[in-house]
Amino acid sequence: MLNRRLLRIKAFKVLFSTRQDGAAALEPARKELLLSCEKTVDLYYFLLNVCGSLKQVAYDKIEAARHKFHPTEAERNPNMKFVDNRFFAALEENAGFQKYSSRKGLVWGEYDIFVKKLLASVTASDYYREYMDSPEDSFKADCMLVRRIFEEEFEDNESLCPILEELSLYWIDDVNYVLNNILYSIDNMIDGRPLILPDVFIKDEDRDFVLKLLEVSLLHYDEYFQLVCDSLDNWDSDRLVSTDATLIVMGIAEAVAFDNIPAKVTINEYVEISKYYSTVNSRVFVNGLLDKIIQAKIASGEIVKTGRGLLDGGQRVSKEQ
Fold first, then answer.
1. What ranges do the domains of the chain cover?
2. What is the pLDDT of residues 32-71, one digit of tens each?
3. SS3 of 79, please?
């Protein structure tokens, strides 16, 4: 489930917090990193599970209206299209999805106020009214409604943030990534494929990659940090932003440890991460200093890249990369 960009971010956060705490123990850091990765998958299940809660709240509301002393004709014969949504049913009938959710306790039972507010927002929307009024009655239409709910109701939802922060410290930064994965999973189902039950890592080597990245960064932190300080021109190391230092250290570690990843890819990745986790000027700073250090190590032979297209003549990063 987790792509390389997100894996780098998670390793960065663990490395940064570990060093800020003055710790350098590898095993606790490894456990923290793996837990952080697993929690991203948990968030996927938790957010999808809101579908069952929405259905239940909608059904309870219909039943309450039916049993009023003088129900209207519409209340006696309600439109059940939303409650009978086939995507909701597919989640309920998926044994793997239900087993994982139950084992991890990824349910919305304690957050019925949020679910009721969410349902009110959904039912007040134009896309909901179009769905309920449409003569089309298909699995695709049901999936498209759920897709619109996740697109329209969850991004930048201020009521959702406190819930996620309460349940897991790891979740709040992963919301948009997980929402994109949910939309992709819904699209898969529209195309006739089964619900995606994601593994933590897309490939086995991704787990090895992120653990090795953290290990090399942590064990060589002092060495690489000193290299950063020595590379500063007319700049007091005390003024070095700690997040910038951590990103540059990780970039050096990646360039040294992974001979199959082009240096330009490594530099670009940490520059991109700096845009979200450091200062306004960090992008230029991280790019310039990381490139300077990596190129010096390539020239000295300390960094050797292997594989087609990674290097031109064995010394320089190829322009094509």
1. 39-190, 220-317
2. 999 999 999 999 999 999 999 999 999 999 999 988 888 8
3. coil
Where are the strands (E) in the chain, listed by range? 311-312, 316-317
Cα–Cα dist 189/175, whole Å: 21
In angstroms, the Cα distances linking 127 to 58, 119, 184 are 17, 13, 20
pTM: 0.90
Torsion angle, CA of 168/170/171/175, rounded to 10 degrees? Answer: 180
Q: Name beta bridge partners: 26.
A: none
Return the CATH architecture of domain 220-317: Orthogonal Bundle (1.10)
Q: Which amino acid is at 64?
A: A
Q: What is the dihedral of CA 63, 67, 68, 72, to 10 degrees?
A: 80
Q: Do 191 and 185 touch, CB atoms closer than 8 A?
A: no
Which three-class secondary structure state does DSSP give residue 311? Answer: strand
Q: Do residues 56 and 193 touch, judged by C-beta distance below 8 A?
A: no
Q: What is the DSSP letter of 196?
A: P
Q: How far apart are CA 177 and CA 3, in angstroms?
A: 10
Residue pLDDT, tens place only, 293-303: 999 999 999 99
3-state secondary structure of 281: coil
Residues in the chain: 321
